[in-house]
Amino acid sequence: MTWTAEKPIVSLKDVRKSFGTLEVLKGVSIDVMKGEVICIIGPSGSGKSTLIRCINGLNDIQGGSIFVQGKEVHATNLDKLELRKKVGMVFQQYNLFPHKTALQNVMMAPLKVLKENKTDVESRARQLIKKVRLEGKEDSYPGELSGGQQQRVAIARSLAMNPEVMLFDEVTAALDPETVKEVLVTIRELAEDGMTCILVTHEMGFAREVADHIYFTDRGVIVEHGPPKTFFDDAQDPRTKEFLGQIL
Amino acid sequence: MKRISGINTPLKGGMAVLKPFDINALSPDGYIFTRWLAALPWWTPLVMLAIIWGYPTIAYAQSGLSIYDAFDALWRWMPFLLVSGFSFNVLISFWTLLIGTVAGVALGLGQISTFGPLRAFSWFITQLFRNSPWLVILFIVLLALPFEFTLFGQTIRVPDWMKGVFGLSLPIMANISEIVRGAVQSVPTAQWEAAESLAFSRRQILWQIILPQCFKRMLPPWMNWYAILTMATPLCSLLGIEEIITLSRQAMESEDNQPELLVPFYGFALLLFFVYCYPIARLTMRLERHYAVKL
């Protein structure tokens, strides 16, 4: 199957995932078009993070299928490394490489994985660090940076691979309230640049502002989805209403 | 003070209950020996000297050889014991560390291989040599290895000391294998995931991201094993290898085997081991404390 821009760039069809006997995803289907920003929200333990980790093959699945640019993620013959060059991921705990400086963290994957020329990579990495507003922090080690700064380095590190899709797994959940904003601003700019983004988030205001489409998951299924306005103002399902009632 | 569960930690709720015996409370880490050595005061050798000096005076005051004769003999043999004897122990320890480290790193990486049979094999070899008496391993190696072998038509003799090195390398290899495995597994799995999602291959993740982070963690236990291994080099004297203990015995024989010589000669050997290993132990414990705080 060849992929064209009219088809979804990421497509989940009836995805099922269990850990032992515990079924965490019970048939989830999502389509994401190129340039779209998707927010997945829902109570903790509803399988949001598991879902997003399936998209770049960090988790395997027991049923259904996931396609990224027309390639099946869990096909046995898939080149996982090729997939991951196209799908960037940012984690809740940043997971920067502690023995490398901010600049080295950003440069490492393009140098070692894509085998690109060092001067090109360095100038791109410096631009990316500028883009996430961390000029002057190039030579700092992760241990010397605040949580919000580390998370922005992590975003730059992912972007350095020039991915087609970015996955954000509760990237502000571990941050202090005052640093949440600087990370969200960075993500919003990315979205405005036309990057396809799939976010798992608890930031409802942010979701409403940047998302093209909101998915609400509970107990392994998608209960309701829609554009932010209809979703937040006119939720239909009682579970969605209850959740939004607690949060907003 | 080290907290030992069931010994000096306060009981929760103050109930007088007998805690289950926890063997890890007695050996919480691999540093028992080094910690003990590093905790000795610097003047320990002076006390040792005093004992060495005093012993023949008290014990054999009535026999023929005087304390001055005994030390005169030691004085004459000292350069020989130091240059031919102890430096050979140091040489053995270097070679053992080198071979043990190279083989141990390979074995440790085998223990975390994705290939099941290799993992099982590496685990078995590690456990086998970690838990066997060193002297038994030494004898097996000495008797089982050929004294010469032919390579490309050239006959190469294997000297006995090289067999001793090989025999000592085996338990060192096994312990370093465990250090490598433990250090790699101590890196959070999130580091693997972050690297995986950046399209690094498993080999790249291990060599470029995980192992560089492990290096600092592995350094103190590695030095700890070096000190232990150096202390074990006199075992080679049982194989007839001419290191300090063998030479001390020969020296005493040539001095007519006077019993007054025993304590000065062996005490001198003890002193040399202390002077050599003590700084290593101090440095190891300093690094251990340093890296425990800052990783």
The coarse silhouette of chain B is flat
The total of beta strands of chain B comes to 2
The low-pLDDT segments of chain A are: none
Largest interface: A-B, 24 and 18 residues
Full CATH superfamily name of chain B:
MetI-like
In which order are the strands of the major sheet of chain A placed?
6-7-8-3-9-10
Largest sheet of chain A: 6 strands, mixed
Strand order of the largest sheet of chain B: 1-2
Task: Supply Rg of chain B.
Answer: 24 Å
Strand percentage of chain B lies at: under 5%
Percent range for helical residues of chain A? 25-40%
Distance N terminus to C terminus of chain A? 43 Å
Low-confidence stretches of chain B: 23-28
DSSP E strands of chain A, number: 10
CATH class of chain B: Mainly Alpha
Kindly describe this structure.
- The complex is a heterodimer of chains A (248) and B (295).
- Chain A is of the alpha/beta class.
- Chain A is 37% helix and 24% strand.
- Chain A contains nine helices and ten strands.
- Chain A has helices spanning 48-55, 80-86, 102-112, 118-131, 147-159, 177-192, 204-210, 228-233, 238-247, and strands at residues 10-19, 22-32, 37-41, 63-68, 71-72, 87-90, 165-169, 196-200, 213-218, 221-226.
- In chain A, a hairpin with a 2-residue loop joins strand 4 (63-68) and strand 5 (71-72).
- In chain A, helix 3 (102-112) packs across helix 4 (118-131), helix 4 crosses helix 5 (147-159) and helix 5 packs parallel to helix 6 (177-192).
- Chain B has 295 residues and is mainly alpha-helical.
- Chain B is built from eleven helices and two strands, in the order ααααααββααααα.
- In chain B, helix 4 runs antiparallel to helix 5 (116-130).
- The radius of gyration of chain B is 24 Å and the shape is flat.
- The model of chain B is unreliable at 23-28 (pLDDT under 50).
- The interface between A and B is medium-sized, with 24 and 18 residues.
